[in-house]
């Protein structure tokens, strides 16, 4: 399929798929803005993510989410 729009920018659907392939996180976009919610599909188990971003620093959240991403390619 054509994964790029006319201006050469990848489509939102393509970018979302790419993020999922890398992070294995399926985000829940229906929650209120401050909540970070989804499911991380790790190599062994599926682990729910459910955080209130108003209770954590952005650095903590970023570090936590990156810690879920496997480093072996």
From TrEMBL:
What keywords does the record list, in alphabetical order? Cell cycle, Cell division, Centromere, Chromosome, Coiled coil, Kinetochore, Mitosis, Nucleus
Q: What's this protein's family per the entry?
A: Belongs to the SPC24 family.
The Gene Ontology biological process terms listed for this entry are: cell division
InterPro entries documented for this protein: Ndc80_Spc24 (IPR013252)
Fill in the subunit field for this protein.
Answer: Component of the NDC80 complex.
| CDD domains on file | RWD_Spc24 (cd11565)
Q: What is the lineage of its organism?
A: Eukaryota, Metazoa, Chordata, Craniata, Vertebrata
| Name of the protein in its database record | Kinetochore protein Spc24
Q: Where in the cell is it found?
A: Nucleus; Chromosome, Centromere, Kinetochore
Q: Which residues form a coiled coil?
A: none
The protein's matches in Pfam families, at most eight in alphabetical order, are given as: Spc24 (PF08286)
From what superkingdom does this record's organism come? Eukaryota
Any one of the GO CC terms: nucleus
Tell me, what does this protein do in biology? Answer: Acts as a component of the essential kinetochore-associated NDC80 complex, which is required for chromosome segregation and spindle checkpoint activity. Required for kinetochore integrity and the organization of stable microtubule binding sites in the outer plate of the kinetochore. The NDC80 complex synergistically enhances the affinity of the SKA1 complex for microtubules and may allow the NDC80 complex to track depolymerizing microtubules.
Q: What is its main location?
A: nucleus
């Amino acid at each position: 399929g054509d994964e790029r729009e006319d201006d050469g920018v990848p489509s939102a659907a393509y970018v979302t798929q790419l993020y999922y392939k890398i992070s294995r996180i399926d985000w829940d976009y229906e929650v209120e803005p401050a909540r970070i919610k989804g499911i991380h599909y790790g190599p062994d188990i599926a682990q729910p993510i459910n955080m209130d971003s108003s209770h954590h620093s952005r650095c903590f959240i970023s570090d936590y989410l990156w810690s879920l991403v496997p480093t072996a390619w």
